[in-house]
Input
Amino acid sequence: MYTEYHNLNSGYVEVICGPMFCGKTEELIRRVKRAMISQQNVIIFKPKIDDRYHPENVVSHNEVAVKAIAINDIEEIHQYLKHHSVIAIDEAQFFSEKTVEICNELANKGKRVIVAGLDKDSFGKPFGVMPNLMAVSDFVTKLHSICVVCGRLASYTFRKTQNKDLVMVGTHETYEARCRKCYFEGQYNIF
Output
């Protein structure tokens, strides 16, 4: 279980993962705000492709927001880092495998790196860089949603359309959280 760790002399990587609508971004924002309260220098990044709620701010589905820098490529973060002790990255699944190297590099320099992202895509497969980030992280928090079909714990993101593109940014109109049983029953019925 994750417990906040405040030894600023030692860097580490924290990963927050799970399906859509489980509170990943809210948890990232909660951790970032606590770091700000403790007077740590914080910087937050998000992919430009995710402009669902705001072009720059990181915004949860419940409209909790924090100022961020929108970037196209993970390597762009180097131009913004100064004396930041906490680096947060939302929707990391949209960034390249270089993300693992950069997160490790920052942690090795004594930085706290907080990363949030989908662990599985809407096809039920590990999503992008997330499995490798989870493997190298010091802490992994896996959150669950509630299945919209049956009310059980949900660990899958179900796409409600027949679009088969891997990346399709959307919200409630396009996706819903489902448990394993309801997810696979739905996959069989749609595809």
In short: The chain has a mean pLDDT of 88. Residues 12-144 form a domain with the Rossmann fold fold (CATH 3.40.50.300). The first strand starts at residue 12 and ends at 18.
